[in-house]
Specification:
The protein is mainly alpha-helical. The chain has 20 helices and two strands. 75% of the residues lie in helices and 1% in strands.
Length: 461
Amino acid sequence: MSTQTSEVPYVSTFNGAADAERQRASQSSGNRSELLKAEAGQAYCPTTRCAPPNVKLDELDSERPAASAFTILRGLGFLDRFLAFFVLGAMIIGVIIGEFADGVQEAFSGASFRGVSVPIVVGLLVMMWPTLTKVEYEEFPQIFRQREIWKQIAISLLLNWIIGPFVMLGIAYATLPDLPEYRTGVIMVGLARCIAMVNIWNQLAGGDHNYCAILVIINSILQIILYSPLALLFINVVGGYEGTSDALELSYGDVAIAVLIYLGIPLAAGIVTRYTVILLFGRKFFTNRFLPYFSPLALVGLLYTIIVIFAEQAKQILDNIGDVFRVFVPMIVYFALMWKGTFVGVWWWLRRRNSRGDTTTSKGWAYKMAVVQAFTAGSNNFELSIAVCVAVYGVHSKQALAATIGPLVEVPVLLALTWVSVYLRTKLRWGDEHMQEEDDIKQESSINEKPRRQDTEDGTQ
C-alpha cells in the first residue's frame, strides 16, 4: 500500500511565482539534489571579483537548507560574518587593558553617571542608535490594528514579567546556595528585561525590527513600574533580608531615570535621524545609501562596550575567578533555557496555526515572531542591573560583579543563538509555505489600491 504526502499548495496572485513553486515541487529527489548542487556552485565564487550576494532572510526557502545556509554566510557583511571572533578579541583586549594599563579602572570608575561608567553609557547609546533608526514608526498605527500583534504582546508580557524573573530566581538558588551576594546580583539581572542588546540579536537573526521596538518600549515602561517592587519582593521577602542591614532599598525614581537614559536618548536620536534623512534626501537614499553605512555603527558600539566592561572589571574577574565561573552557570542555564523554550514554543504554536490555512500573515512572519520573542525573553538589561547594584551595594561589591558577569555571558551565548536561529529558519517547517511573501502582498495591495483611488477621485469630481 503506497502512501502519499499531501502538500499545501502555494497561494499567490502572481502566475510566475505559482508556476515556479509547482515546478520545484514536482521534481524528483535526484533532480532536487542536482538543483542544490548547482545552486551551491553558483553561490560559491572562486574569483576575487565576485561580491557577496545581497540576501534577505525572508527570501530563504526551507526546502533548500544546504544552499540557503551557504548563501546566508556569503551574504553577511564582513563585521557580521566574523562578529564572534571580534567579540572574543574584544574580551581579550579588555582584560589585557584592565590588567596591565595603570589607572584605567580608576578612570572608568571616576567618570560615572547614575552608577554606570560614562564610557559604558556612551557605548550603549551608540549601540542602540542605529537599530532604533531602522524602526518604521510610521507603521505603528497599522501594526497595532492587527489582532495577532496583541496576542504576541500578551505572550511577551507573560514571558518577561512572570516566567523569566521566577526562572532566574529558581536557577540562582539552585546553583548558588552558598554565595548569597553573587546570588543577589544574578537575581537583579533576571529582573531587568532587555531594552538594548536585544535589538542587536534581533537584527543579526532577521527578526521583525518594528515588533522588537514595540516590545522594547513596552518593557521599558513596565520596567519603571515593576522593577522596584519585584526586586524588593525577591531580595527582601524571598531572600529573608527584610529588616536587616542587607535589605534592599530602591526607589521608582532611580529606575525611571536609568530607563530614560538608556532608551529615551537613543530612541529620540533614532527618530530624529530617520525622519531628518528621509525628509532631506528621500526614502530611497535612506534605505539604499544611508543605512548600509550607518548600521554597522551598532556592532562597533557593541564591541566598544565589551572592551570597556572587561577593562573596568578585569582585576575583579581575575581575583575572583573561581566565583566568577560559578556565576557563569546560572547565567548560561537561564539564557539557553529561556531562549530555547520560547523559540520552540512559538514555532510549534504558529506552525500549527499556519498549517490550518490562516493567511492573515505573510510568509516568514512566524520565524520573525519566534526570533523576537526568544531573544526578548532570553536577554536582560544588564546596564540597569549594574547601575542598581553599584548604587545600592558599591562598585566593588560582589553583587555588582555578578551583575557585570551578565553581559560577559549573554554576549557570546546569544551571539551563538543568532546562528542557531538562522539555521533553524531553513531547517524547520514553519507551515507558511503556502503563503505570499510580504513584498508580494504589498505589491498586490498597491495595485488594487490604484483603481480604488481613481474611483474615489471620479466620484468627487
